[in-house]
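Morning, I've got a small favour to ask if you have a moment. I'm working through a protein record and want to make sense of it properly. The fold is given in discrete form, as structure tokens running alongside the sequence. Can you walk me through what the tokens say about the fold? Thanks so much in advance, here it is:
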Amino acid sequence: MKTLLKICLIILIPLILLILWLTLTDYKPEDLEAVSITHQSRETAGDTLDIFNWNIGYGGLGRDMDFFMDEGERIRAPREEYVSYREGIYKAINESSAEIYFFQEIDWKSTRSYKDNQLEQISDILRGKSYAFASNYRVKYIPSPRIIGTQYGSVHSGLAVYSDYTMKKAERHALPGNYTWPKKIFFLDRCLLMTVLPEKSGREWVLINLHTSAYDKGGFLKKEQLEFIKTLASEEFEKGRYVVIGGDWNSFMPGTDADQFTSTETAQEFYQPLPEDWSMPGWSWAFDPKVATNRSLKDPYEAGKSFKCVIDGFLVSPNVDILEVKGIDLNFANSDHNPVMLRVGMK
């Protein structure tokens, strides 16, 4: 009996201390925070914009990866594999041509990305564009399912906007809803990153980069977040601004579904459409239904087998014209997402 008690204490005491430490160090951002702008440009935006959106999966979720949080087995890519994915991502960014870049899951000195400062690395590739960064995942230590071996470690990740043009301001808006304790101390603090760009004639662009929650049971968190986005975006439009919302919506784009692409793997439960009662009259969706933007991480990527869907795209206000939208099929070589390019103009 005493031996059993000792074993229980050996297991429980470190676990209790870990949860206590993570609770005390839990990231607690304000609902609204000003975000600093690095390398501020002196150029002013015109009445059209080319915008590139990509969830880069922190450079750790290329074609050979599955992921333990999505029913896979692997925890993080070994350094050599990570570097291969990272360099593939950076090559694709370097070969792209856009004035504005939205990134999700961009890391700053996280264990899973081998302490790289991806913000500055991408800034170097984009030749000193202005950029703003909003944290949405800051945890001192993420426990792994294995006590011994590869650990997930510390995470600092978020959303970034890079711009050729002057940003009048950048703000981090916390998205409502969260998991209950202790689950919440291990999960993301969802947010959106809003930037305001003056336009040459005196008008203003509002660019909103987001990464909303995957569906919780009942979809309550997602519904709260979508209502917040609708309210904020509508308020900006009513001010006479030209609003572009883009990113990883973690929902099927309207008119697409789980059967959009042929695969032998079925969709996991967290893949869901947007709520039927959620809409923004007069606003327009921009995405490419022909190019999958996300693949399942249950297993390494295999064409024809892996589940694929379209969950990344844009929503624009009634005073914005969609001039062109195109998915970029990179075959999930270096990320579990594909990029989307958008060209928009002021009406």
